[in-house]
Write a structure and sequence with these properties.
By secondary structure, this protein is of the alpha/beta class. The protein is built from eight helices and 13 strands. About 35% of the residues are buried.
Length: about 220
Amino acid sequence: MRVLMVEDATDLAEAVVTSLSRSGMACDHADSVQGAEDFLAVQSYDAIILDINLPDGSGTELLRKMRSGGDRTPVLMLTALFSVDDRVGALDLGADDYLVKPFDQRELEARLRALFRRESEQKSDTVALGPLQYSPAQMTATLHGDRLDLTRREAALLGLLMRSPGQPLSKERLYDGLFTFSDADVGLNAIELYIARLRKKFAGSPITIATQRGVGYRISVDG
């Protein structure tokens, strides 16, 4: 899951980015409207955390511009001052959710996962594929009831694949879901390494990750 956080409070933003990373979400950070527009011009996101009060403009105006331009990316509004009028106005403009500062990081992550599920074929918090089950909240997976030993990035990659069962996802799409612009030293071929690791964990089971040359990778269950 790739997230953009638009927030000018550096300490808060850094804490959120670090926490989301531990939860398997790749998070870029913009500290202004212009910075957010620069990111959005070159990268698509699964969700956006958008503060209302920014140094060079209003988050609601950025939201208005996004929606008028046809950008339907789920947006969670974030602010310290959020009256009923603010909430109604933001939702009417096309915000999908809101959270008032100060907030609990666990709630932010839960709300982001909920937004992601709305856009996914899998609506349950636990994603199942035959004998394989994956919990996005816990970043854990079990196969035939036995817990798999997964690193954070392996778990995040598995989550991306399982949200689109039977459908190929390109190497670029998987890379975008795992890495941020700050991971510029990590190459696209890293996806092949993580795919190989997952395949080893599924050896002897009906779970397969097939390579469709020129298209991407597809997870499925045999039989």
